[in-house]
Specification:
This protein is α/β, with parallel strands linked by helices. Helix content is 40%, strand content 14%. The protein is built from ten helices and nine strands. The chain has a six-stranded parallel sheet with strand order 1-9-8-7-5-6. Strands 3-2-4 form a three-stranded parallel sheet, with helices on both faces. The protein is globular, with a radius of gyration of 19 Å. The structure holds NADP nicotinamide-adenine-dinucleotide phosphate.
Length: 280
């Protein structure tokens, strides 16, 4: 049976480290502040924004909330970002995505000062990651690196397969694993024989967005399996599942992340980590 990689525990350790780092900054007279912008009233976005505010509170950072109506214009949003970019008291700026359809998300992301882009979505930060320069890294893949390292999974020289090539998970994940000296293969919907590729993986990272798609037939015996997916298969139930069929895969993997309690809690912890890095 696979050992569980405990994202809840590891994320709380990271948040406690952030708290200690903020205490040190405060002792030097520096406050740390995250500006969170929400546009419209999408209930899922409101939950995410609420969780980010709670995490700020926990680590001792100030969270500044900005709420624009769905009827607001792109210009109004850009003006707010410009104002926050110039505000020395603001260390990080986060625009909760997705934005309502009338907004141009790419333009919004590009308007954020790259040195306050704690989500790591700005093309400058994506470029920094790909050429090995310091910069903000997308929180979910950065959290997966922490999960692996803090669970004593060695990455160097390992065969790593990432399923999914999205800009926020798959691609930065592949770049980070490459930076850690893994041999990396990225799969996607046009990959011809997915099983043949995934069965080679010592570390398999699954970010497909398809509930329980990856069962034991895709996994090599003893592999480490990281499940990024989050789904609520039954809307009336609180039960969540991932992209991995946990019951099937835990029988042959050496380590595995559960859903919930695996990758999910790491995303906010790494956001806090990025925020403190920005302030430092
Ligand atoms: P996405 O943008 O929808 O990307 C999915 C990727 O999977 C695409 O690259 C797609 O290939 C590939 N794919 C789809 N069907 C496939 C198939 N049958 N075989 C192989 N590849 C396939 O999703 P995402 O934003 O990366 O998110 C992935 C999952 O992670 C979702 O469940 C999401 O909810 C979850 N997520 C969790 C967190 C967290 O904090 N835990 C954060 C972000 C996302 P193509 O490029 O060819 O279309």
């Amino acid at each position: 049976m696979a050992e569980l990689i405990d994202g809840k525990l590891i994320s709380s350790i990271i948040k406690d480290e952030c708290k200690a780092r903020i205490e040190k900054l405060k002792s030097e007279g520096k406050e740390v502040a995250l500006a969170v912008i929400q546009v419209g009233d999408d209930p899922a976005s409101s939950v995410y924004v609420g969780n980010k505010k709670k995490a700020c509170e926990y680590i001792g950072a100030v969270s500044l909330s900005y709420h624009l109506e769905e009827s607001a214009t792109q210009e109004e949003l850009l003006e707010l970002i410009d104002k926050l970019n110039l505000d020395d008291k603001v260390n990080g700026i986060l625009v909760q995505l997705p934005l309502p359809k009338s907004f141009d998300e790419d333009e919004v992301i590009r308007r954020i000062d790259p040195d306050k882009d704690v989500d790591g979505f700005h093309p400058i930060n994506v470029g920094r990651l790909s050429i090995g320069e310091k910069g903000f890294v997308s929180c979910t893949p950065a959290g997966i690196i922490e999960l692996l390292k803090r669970s004593n999974v060695s990455i160097e020289g390992k065969e790593c397969v990432v399923i999914g090539r999205s800009n926020i998970v798959g691609k930065p994940m592949a770049m980070l694993m490459l930076r850690e000296n893994a041999t990396v293969t990225v799969c996607h919907s046009r990959t011809k024989d997915l099983r043949e590729v995934t069965k080679r993986a010592d570390i398999l990272i699954v970010a497909i967005g398809k509930p329980k798609m990856i069962d034991a037939s895709y996994v090599k015996e003893g592999a480490v399996v990281i499940d990024v997916g989050i789904h609520r298969p039954d809307p009336d139930s609180k039960k969540l599942c991932g992209d991995v069929d946990f019951e099937s895969v835990e029988k042959i993997a050496s380590k595995i992340t559960p859903v919930p309690g695996g990758v999910g809690p790491m995303t906010i912890a790494m956001l806090m980590n990025n925020l403190v890095n920005s302030a430092e």
